Amino acid sequence: MMKTLVIVFHPSIATSVANKRWLQELAQYPDRYTIHDVYQAYPEGKIDVACEQALVEAHANVVLQFPVYWFNCPPMMKQWLDEVLAYGWAYGTGGDAFQGRKVALAVTAGIRQQDFTPQGKWSVTLAQLLAPFDVTLAYIGADKRRFFAFYGAEDGPKEVGYAERLARSAQAYERYLAAL
Question: Assign residue 88 a region: left if phi > 0, alpha if psi is -120 to 50, beta otherwise?
Answer without folding.
Answer: left
